[in-house]
Design goal:
Blueprint lengths: L2 E6 L8 H9 L8 E7 L2 E7 L12 E2 L5 E9 L2 H10 L9 H12 L9 E9 L4 E3 L1
Antiparallel strand pairs: 1-3, 2-3, 4-5, 5-6, 6-7
């Protein structure tokens, strides 16, 4: 089971990488396999990962190809293989076999309705850098 954390500052104050690191450090018992961070300006996301699916290329945070959508995620998407096939038919290309990456492109394809396409148990934090939108 992974642990996710984050902070978004208002007023364009930068988020401290050290702060997000300390937050993620409190979650080490939930994810001993990997830690990852996305800290850019006033947004910081952190992950402590327990690797179950896609052990080799499933590290998080996970980004779209352009680097405009980033997600940290805990859980499992049961229908990710079918959803991935649908997204590939729409022209999206994947770099991993991870259910996490499917969420990034589902968001790009369906906007906020992307969660209606997900079957599973999960928690996520998704940051859209273009719209400056945080989805929890």
């Amino acid at each position: 089971m992974c642990g996710i954390c984050g902070r978004v500052n208002t007023g364009a104050r930068p988020v401290s990488r050290a702060l997000v690191g300390r937050m993620a450090g409190t979650l080490v018992h939930r994810g001993p396999d990997q830690e990852g961070f996305h800290v850019v300006e006033d947004v910081g996301l952190g992950i402590r990962r327990l690797a179950i699916i896609d052990l080799h290329t499933g590290d998080q945070p996970m980004y779209d190809a352009e680097g405009t959508v980033v997600v940290v995620f805990n859980g499992e998407i049961y229908n990710f293989k079918e959803l991935r096939a649908d997204l590939e038919a729409q022209g999206y290309r994947f770099r991993t076999r991870s259910d996490t990456e499917v969420m990034v492109y589902a968001y790009k394809a369906y906007g906020l309705d992307f969660v209606d396409h997900l079957r599973g148990m999960f928690a996520l934090a998704l940051w859209d850098t273009v719209r400056r939108r945080l989805v929890l």
